[in-house]
TrEMBL record:
It is found in: Peroxisome membrane. Keywords: Membrane, Peroxisome, Peroxisome biogenesis. This is Peroxisomal biogenesis factor 11 alpha. InterPro entries: PEX11. Coiled coil: none annotated.
Length: 220
């Protein structure tokens, strides 16, 4: 998608652009087939997150997993349509349902991320207040001169929190990148295939990184 967007306006590239778009369509269909079992995985994950002790992550992650399961159901129906097994399926309707489910799932993930950030921000501020007149260890010296008065202090403290918690940062980046597609499809924030393609690449790289290094994956 990104490559076809970058070269579609160049001369003598029409055939290449057409091939890239055909490849994009084929890969999309293949991806839907490989995701057929993900509905079960999402339901199992939803059952697991109902056991979380903290009510906010429990609600956000369970809602996210359940709506993601619905998204995979819609995705499977669209796949049946694409291979000709269900030609009577209303593609636009099912695609809209799938996008809405995916959008809500991402919003729940982002709500969980913001809860984690808020908790750590509050913890850091309290830590700063209780230790501001004592000897600070090396771990807390980064926050020594930071105050939450005003936007600058807040952003600086937020930067320090995300810097100290890479799994939270990566999860936030991935969810924000994934959000670009549903926002465009639903007409909430129209972009272009170049932006969506770039965000997709960045999201995939973060996903690969968390698989290669499990310690970078945000724990549930």
């Amino acid at each position: 998608m990104l490559l076809s967007y970058l070269i579609e306006h160049k001369a003598d590239k029409e055939k290449l652009v057409m091939k890239l778009k055909q490849l994009e369509t084929s890969m999309s269909s293949g991806r839907k087939m490989f995701r057929l079992g993900n509905m079960v995985h999402a339901l199992v994950a939803a059952r697991r997150t109902t056991q979380l002790p903290d009510v906010v992550p429990r609600f956000c992650l369970t809602a996210s997993n359940l709506t993601r399961a619905l998204y995979f159901v819609c995705d499977a129906v669209l796949w049946l349509k694409s291979i000709g097994l269900r030609p009577d399926v209303d593609k636009l309707k099912w695609r809209n349902w799938a996008t809405k489910c995916y959008y809500f799932s991402l919003l729940m993930n982002l709500a969980r991320d913001w809860y984690e950030i808020s908790w750590r921000l509050e913890q850091a501020v309290q830590e700063e207040k209780t230790k501001e007149n004592s000897f600070w260890d090396k771990h807390n010296q980064e926050l020594n001169c930071v105050r939450c008065d005003g936007l600058h202090g807040f952003l600086l403290l937020l930067f320090q929190i995300l810097k100290r918690h890479p799994p939270l940062l990566l999860d936030l980046v991935k969810n924000l990148c994934d959000l670009s597609g549903p926002l465009d499809t639903l007409g909430i924030c129209k972009t272009n295939p170049g932006v969506i393609g770039f965000c997709g690449i960045l999201s995939s790289l973060v996903g690969i990184l968390t698989i290669a290094s499990p310690q970078l994956k945000l724990k549930q």
